[in-house]
């Protein structure tokens, strides 16, 4: 498969984020203040961006957020390839612990990457989340 993974600009990440995660909200809804300093990664299939994930670094901790694969390409392994890449890459930034707010229906997915559930969970906009983490 002709795919590449590379850093992308926040604007590229925003487009996919909006399309996949909150298509019915205003475009500005998907922007995060910290996006300016985050590192955004994208997976391209034949030059088309189909999956994005953003990494927010705070000293030795890294949070990944806004992981999204365009609907018609989900379930084909692209997201896994991108997440594996980011987990490997995180080490190069000196990150020792990586974590995320996992939507409840994604917990088993993240377990495949060695993330474990913490005791912290919360509900936001009617959706349940659990914090998951992994030592690198
Ligand atoms: C979460 C998300 C980014 C995953 O991206 P993806 O490209 O679909 O990821 P993958 O294809 O690698 O994995 C998805 C599933 O397909 C399976 N899979 C992986 N490779 C596969 C392949 N070659 N063939 C069939 N299935 C495959 C995975 O095991 C996984 O199964 P699971 O969900 O039962 O654990 C995507 O589902 C998405 O954008 N969801 C909407 C937004 C969202 O929920 N974001 C995460 C918030 S925590």
From TrEMBL:
<dbReference type="Pfam" id="PF13673">
    <property type="entry name" value="Acetyltransf_10"/>
</dbReference>
<dbReference type="InterPro" id="IPR016181">
    <property type="entry name" value="Acyl_CoA_acyltransferase"/>
</dbReference>
<feature type="domain" description="N-acetyltransferase">
    <location>
        <begin position="1"/>
        <end position="136"/>
    </location>
</feature>
<protein>
    <submittedName>
        <fullName>GNAT superfamily N-acetyltransferase</fullName>
    </submittedName>
</protein>
<dbReference type="InterPro" id="IPR000182">
    <property type="entry name" value="GNAT_dom"/>
</dbReference>
């Amino acid at each position: 498969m002709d795919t590449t993974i590379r850093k992308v600009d926040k604007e590229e990440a925003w487009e996919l984020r909006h399309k996949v995660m909150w298509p019915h909200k205003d475009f500005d809804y998907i922007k995060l203040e910290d996006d300016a300093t985050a590192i955004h990664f994208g997976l391209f299939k034949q030059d088309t961006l189909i999956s994005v994930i953003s990494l927010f670094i705070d000293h030795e901790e890294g949070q990944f957020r806004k992981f999204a694969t365009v609907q018609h390409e989900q379930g084909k392994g692209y997201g896994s390839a991108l997440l594996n890449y980011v987990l490997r890459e995180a080490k190069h930034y000196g990150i020792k612990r990586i974590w995320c707010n996992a939507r409840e229906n994604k917990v088993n997915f993240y377990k495949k990457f060695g993330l474990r559930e913490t005791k912290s969970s919360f509900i936001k906009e009617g959706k349940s989340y659990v914090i998951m983490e992994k030592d690198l």
